[in-house]
Amino acid sequence: MAEQQVVADLREKSATPPSLLRDVAAAMADEMCAGLEMEGGSRVKMLLSYVDKLPTGREEGLFYGLDLGGTNFRVLKVQLGGNDKHAISCESREVAIPPHLMSGSSSELFGFIASELAKFVADEEKGTSLSNGKTRELGFTFSFPVRQRSVASGTLVKWTKAFSIEDAVGKDVVAELQTAMQKQGLDMHVAALINDAVGTLAGARYYDEDVVAGVIFGTGTNAAYVEKANAIPKWEGELPSSGQMVINMEWGNFYSCHLPVTEYDQALDNESLNPGEQIYEKLTSGMYLGEIVRRVLLKLSLQSAIFGEIDHTKLKTHFHLRTPHISAMHHDDTPDLKTVEEKLKEILEVC
């Protein structure tokens, strides 16, 4: 009966009935309003992205992209054809970040990124030359809280996930990258700095003009949406001609007493790099869910015989899910995964 009690207790403390979800939604809305009211007024930062116009699908040209948001980063080159042609071609490469660079120095991290970007450009442009002597344009997706003052500059507020590079906090991440690229002799200009949620919103709007929000559930979690510029009290200066502003919510730091935080969540938070922060992210995102499951299974196995006589060694080992693992799962088309997908659909339909 011990395992039944543990499962029943977990089910009760993790339950999310509609009434609770309404309370969570109301608390989130209150935090959003407070974050729009003034800087530092909310745990949900509601950062201005300085993106007031989104793609139309008519854009043309050759562009480079750099996406840094987890334990790896991706570089890409895309040729946009405009109108109904959209993306004519796209080449990309994923690079794992050595763990020691995630807690080293800013110059080491951005130096490594710039060197890999230079290699990618060299490989992709073999036998070709940049037309009209134009500097390469780079879009920089940086999936950490940044306070922007323009579309192409922003200072790092704090690191999240597995990063803890102290000397980068408060610095302009675009300037850091630009300096590193110059040292590599790379003729490239950062034209825009955006968060991954803002990028997701922009990418979706490129194909569908009705899209108004982008949501990330990966290594971490975040959301961005289109807000009316005159509904942002903390906005300083002249309102944009479009009358709109994309808001980077940084909702991973959201917390409310209504959230179903269990003993497993509390233990994980206490042992994390940033105790008391990013609670919503720790409850919902890929970096933490596997570790929470491990803790539940360990308690079940220690307090009951539900799994029989087993060696607890592996269950006592912390589970670390890195971005490359998530990427591999996204590309997994094995029979086992398809079976799991079918079963999940059945369960959701029943629920």
From TrEMBL:
Gene Ontology CC terms, in alphabetical order: cytosol; mitochondrion
Catalytic activity reported: a D-hexose + ATP = a D-hexose 6-phosphate + ADP + H(+); D-glucose + ATP = D-glucose 6-phosphate + ADP + H(+); D-fructose + ATP = D-fructose 6-phosphate + ADP + H(+)
Keyword terms, alphabetized: ATP-binding, Glycolysis, Kinase, Nucleotide-binding, Transferase
Record bears the keyword Kinase: yes
Record-stated family: Belongs to the hexokinase family.
Pathway: Carbohydrate metabolism; hexose metabolism; Carbohydrate degradation; glycolysis; D-glyceraldehyde 3-phosphate and glycerone phosphate from D-glucose: step 1/4
GO biological process assignments: glucose metabolic process; glycolytic process; intracellular glucose homeostasis
Gene3D superfamilies from the UniProt entry: 3.30.420.40, 3.40.367.20
A single GO molecular function term of this UniProt record: glucokinase activity
Gene assigned in the entry: LOC125542912
Pfam families for the chain: Hexokinase_1, Hexokinase_2
EC number in record: 2.7.1.-
Entry protein name: Phosphotransferase
Residues covered by the Hexokinase N-terminal domain: 8-206
Hexokinase C-terminal domain sequence ranges: 213-349
Domain of life: Eukaryota
